[in-house]
Structure formats: structure tokens, C-alpha cells
């Protein structure tokens, strides 16, 4: 489970994901207030990007950036939550 106190949400992952992902709270996406990245990990090493949660102010999301890359999730308290992911999840995360 991943819990974000600052933005008030929790993500629950399948048991099969245990010890297979890493969370990086950063701000890599230009124009986003926050970017939270989930990577696939194997033997303690990051193998592949899985997805990111992006948090925008309304004006940032609906304003100048490329919305086509991001999937809208919800709006809450003046914040827009979106995701950005690979076309397909890494092989190891879906095979077990």
C-alpha cells in the first residue's frame, strides 16, 4: 500500500506486487505540482518505469501542457489527478 499524507490518498496494490515496486516522490513533470513515480524493481534494482501519478492545479492541467499524454483520474479540492504510464506494464509485474 502507498499512502500520501500531503494529498490525502492511498493506493492499494495486489499482493503479487510486494517487493516489486519502488516509489519516488519527485517533480519530474514540467507544470505539475507533484509527480509520484512507481518503478518495477527486481532483486533490489529498478528495471522499468510502471506509471506516475501527476498532481496539477486546475489551471496547470487545463492550460498549457500536453493533456494527451496524461489520463485524467479525478479532481479534488482544486487539484487535478492524472496518470502517465507505459503502453504495457513490465513483464515481471504481470506474470506472477
What's the helical proportion of residues? under 10%
Order of adjacent strands in the largest pleated sheet: 3-4-5-7-6
Query: Averaged pLDDT, please?
Result: 82
Number of helices: 2
Poorly predicted runs: none
Largest sheet: 5 strands, antiparallel
Radius of gyration: 14 Å
Distance between the termini: 18 Å
The structural class is mainly beta
How big a fraction of the residues is strand?
over 45%
Strand tally, please? 7
As for the number of domains, it is 1
Global shape: globular
The helix/strand series, from N terminus to C terminus, equals EEEEEHEEH
Describe this structure in words.
With 96 residues, the chain is mainly beta. The protein has one domain (2-86). It contains 2 helices and 7 strands, in the order βββββαββα. The protein has helices spanning 58-62, 91-94, and strands spanning 2-4, 9-11, 21-26, 34-42, 45-57, 71-76, 79-85. The strands form 2 sheets. A 5-stranded antiparallel beta sheet has the order 3-4-5-7-6. It has a two-stranded antiparallel sheet with strand order 1-2. A hairpin with a 2-residue loop joins strand 6 (71-76) and strand 7. The chain is globular. It starts with a strand and ends with a helix. The model has no long low-confidence stretch (mean pLDDT 82).
Amino acid at each position: 500500500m502507498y499512502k500520501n499524507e500531503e494529498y490525502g490518498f492511498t493506493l492499494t496494490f495486489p499482493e503479487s506486487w510486494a517487493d516489486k515496486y519502488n516509489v519516488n516522490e519527485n517533480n519530474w513533470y514540467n507544470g505539475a505540482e507533484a509527480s509520484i513515480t512507481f518503478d518495477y524493481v527486481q532483486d533490489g534494482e529498478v528495471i522499468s518505469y510502471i506509471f506516475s501519478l501527476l498532481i496539477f492545479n486546475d489551471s496547470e492541467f487545463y492550460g498549457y501542457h500536453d493533456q494527451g499524454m496524461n489520463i485524467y483520474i479525478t479532481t479534488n479540492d482544486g487539484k487535478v489527478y492524472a496518470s502517465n504510464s507505459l503502453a504495457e506494464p513490465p513483464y515481471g509485474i504481470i506474470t506472477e
